[in-house]
């Protein structure tokens, strides 16, 4: 899923479940893996080098494509934060809120993948193994239908939160 989807859902869940920012982070972090288990679309990263026979050997090369990927990733994250602030408002008192921590927790497993690629140490190895294991093997091919499905999923989750919250 896109970082926008992970951050919006992580933030929204954390915002209704807890007033503790660190618990909000955990809620967002756990939501990431649950969302990745659902068939979805991901955008292509040009710097990503995949080993189809062993996903633990995947890597992200720091090259010209990497900097374009950073722009793509940054834009994705910015869109997520924008959606969060439109839906929930900008936290006035402090950024140390479950909302922000939930958003950060929601994207953290993907950020940890980069550190895994470069360091390959524990606990990153175990987190990466779990991430690969839980991640759906079904990938949607079309960007438009993939994005629309994620928007629909965000609205579905937000509707459930609104109904029960």
Overview of this structure, please?
This protein has 165 residues and is mostly helical. It has one domain. It has helices spanning 3-17, 21-36, 64-88, 98-119, 124-134, 143-164, and strands at residues 48-49, 59-60. Strands 1-2 form a two-stranded antiparallel sheet. Helix 1 crosses helix 2 and helix 1 (3-17) crosses helix 4 (98-119). The relative contact order is 0.23.
Provide a quick synopsis of the model:
The chain has 165 residues and is mainly α.
What keyword list fits this structure?
165 residues, mainly alpha, two-stranded antiparallel sheet, 6 helices, globular
Number of strands: 2
Molecular shape: globular
Widest beta sheet: strand line-up: 1-2
Note poorly predicted spans: none
Measured between the Cα atoms of the first and last residue, the distance is 25 Å
Task: Count the DSSP helices.
Answer: 6
Question: Helicity range of the residues?
Answer: 55-70%
Total count of domains? 1
Indicate the proportion of strand residues. Answer: under 5%
Could you state the order of secondary-structure elements as H and E? HHEEHHHH
């Amino acid at each position: 899923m896109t970082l926008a989807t992970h951050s919006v859902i992580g933030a929204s869940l954390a915002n209704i479940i807890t007033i503790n920012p660190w618990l909000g982070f955990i809620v967002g972090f756990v939501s990431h893996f649950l969302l990745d288990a659902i068939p979805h679309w991901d955008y292509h990263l040009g710097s990503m080098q995949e080993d189809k026979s062993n996903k633990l050997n995947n890597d992200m090369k720091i090259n010209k494509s990497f900097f374009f990927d950073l722009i793509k990733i940054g834009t994705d994250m910015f869109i997520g934060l924008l959606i969060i602030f439109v839906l929930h408002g900008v936290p006035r008192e402090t950024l140390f809120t479950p909302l922000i921590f939930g958003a950060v927790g929601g994207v953290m497993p993907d950020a940890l993948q980069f550190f895994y690629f470069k360091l390959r140490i524990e606990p990153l190895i175990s987190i990466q193994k779990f991430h690969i294991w839980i991640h759906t093997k079904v990938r949607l091919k079309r960007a438009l239908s993939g994005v629309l499905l994620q928007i629909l999923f965000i609205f579905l989750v937000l509707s459930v939160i609104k109904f029960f919250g």
